[in-house]
Description:
The protein has helices spanning 6-20, 29-48, 54-71, 79-99, 104-127. With 136 residues, the protein is an all-alpha fold.
Amino acid sequence: xxxxxxxxxxxxxxxxxxxxxxxxxxxxxxxxxxxxxxxxxxxxxxxxxxxxxxxxxxxxxxxxxxxxxxxxxxxxxxxxxxxxxxxxxxxxxxxxxxxxxxxxxxxxxxxxxxxxxxxxxxxxxxxxxxxxxxxx
Length: 136
């Protein structure tokens, strides 16, 4: 190795380490909901407008009510609400999608949208202590 390149290589390694050392910041439950709820609400609205079949419609109804109630809390949403959304409402909506008479491609697309929402939720829940409440 050319010894004149060692300082540049060392500087590049230090710069790379400095860029990767940034840790994600915890967000308030309301901030997380602001990112997740539009995805969930759009998906629920799209599904509600379709004829999905009886079993899918039943599954969607319960999950949609829970998701809508949670997302309507706004600044008063808690980590517990987000846990409920991630653990109950999203899986039920995904079940409704899978039970529906939608095309396989449409099912995949909608499921992927909700998977993104779930990743955001799970990341936020990992950074927030359980059952903290923001707002009054």
